[in-house]
Amino acid sequence: MLFRSVLVSSDGRLVNLPSAHADARGGTLFLDAVWALDEAQQRLFLDLISMDTPRTVRLIVGSDRYLWPLVESGYFSEALFYRLNALHITRAAARPWS
Questions:
Q1: Which of 2, 10, 37, 92 is deepest in the core (most CB within 10 A)?
Q2: Cα 83 to the chain's mean position, in Å?
């Protein structure tokens, strides 16, 4: 599969992450709302991407929240944050110009 998109709901439910990762082999996995992953899912995700050597999946992760404050509060894994924070892109809010 060239592109696999996984949306994490605001309550952290995620459809079978290992399966999504396997389906995306040779392509791209887009994981949206990464901030909503609970502690166990964060560990699983970190394990999955750590074991993916040589790289078989391009990974794009999105979040509508700043992750660093979540790391500081202990909600989001610092190890996962640094693993994902290779390229940080911030875009302006999509609201009308005055």
A1: 37
A2: 10
SS3 7: strand
Place of tokens 């040589």: 54
Q: Are 19 and 45 in contact (CB under 8 A)?
A: no
Alpha-carbon distance 35 to 80, whole Å?
11
DSSP 35: G
- 3 — pLDDT class (breaks 50, 70, 90): very low
Q: Poorest-confidence range of 10-19, 31-40, 46-55, 56-65?
A: 10-19
Chain length of the chain:
98
